[in-house]
C-alpha cells in the first residue's frame, strides 16, 4: 500500500532491497496490515505467507526493527489481531494509508530514524 525509501545502514544480499518505510497488507479472512521499516523482500510476485518488518543490519551490527509488528501474517477468525490492522477491503486499507493522520504520523517518525554506529 505504501513503500518509501529511507536512508539507513543495512546489509544487502539475496532477498534484500534498500530499506523502505512500508505499510503492507496480507490477505486472510480479512486484509491485515502492518507498518515498519524493512529491507527484506516480501515474496515472489507479491505472494508470501509472512512479511517481515526487519532490516538486516550492517555486518557485525545485528538486525533491527521499528514497526508495530516484527512480522505480518494472516490470522484465524478467533485469534487476537492487534496490533495488526484489520480491514474488510483493500479500499479501506488504502484509505488508512492515504487519508488518515495515524499512518502519516507514524511514517514521518519512521522516516526520521537515524541509526548510528
Helix content: 10-25%
Report low-confidence residues grouped into runs of 5 or more: none
Give the CA-based shape.
Answer: globular
Number of helices: 2
Q: How many strands, what sense, and barrel or not for the largest sheet?
A: 4 strands, antiparallel
What's the rounded overall pLDDT mean? 93
Number of DSSP strands?
Answer: 6
Order of helices and strands: EEEEEEHH
Strand order of the largest sheet: 1-2-3-6
Structural class: alpha+beta
> How far apart, in Å, are the first and last alpha carbons?
31 Å
Question: How much strand?
Answer: 25-35%
- CA radius of gyration is 14 Å
Features:
two-stranded antiparallel ribbon, 30% strand, four-stranded antiparallel sheet, 18% helix, 2 helices, alpha+beta, 117 residues
Describe this structure in words.
The protein has a four-stranded antiparallel sheet with strand order 1-2-3-6, covered by helices on one side. A two-stranded antiparallel sheet has the order 4-5. It has two helices and six strands. The N and C termini lie far apart (31 Å). Helix 1 (90-99) crosses helix 2. The chain is an alpha+beta fold and 117 residues long. The protein has helices spanning 90-99, 101-111; strands at 2-5, 16-27, 31-40, 50-52, 71-73, 85-87. A hairpin with a 3-residue loop joins strand 2 (16-27) and strand 3 (31-40). The chain is globular and about 40 Å long. The model has no long low-confidence stretch (mean pLDDT 93).
Amino acid at each position: 500500500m505504501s513503500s518509501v525509501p529511507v536512508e539507513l545502514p543495512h546489509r544487502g544480499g539475496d532477498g534484500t532491497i534498500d530499506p523502505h518505510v512500508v505499510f503492507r497488507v496480507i490477505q486472510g479472512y480479512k486484509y491485515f496490515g502492518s507498518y515498519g521499516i524493512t529491507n527484506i523482500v516480501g515474496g515472489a510476485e507479491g505472494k508470501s505467507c509472512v512479511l517481515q518488518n526487519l532490516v538486516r543490519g550492517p555486518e557485525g551490527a545485528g538486525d533491527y526493527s521499528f514497526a508495530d509488528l516484527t512480522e505480518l501474517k494472516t490470522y484465524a477468525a478467533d485469534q487476537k489481531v492487534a496490533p495488526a490492522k484489520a480491514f474488510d477491503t483493500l479500499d479501506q486499507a488504502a484509505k488508512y494509508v492515504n487519508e488518515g493522520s495515524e499512518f502519516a504520523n507514524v511514517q514521518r517518525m519512521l522516516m526520521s530514524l537515524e541509526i548510528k554506529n
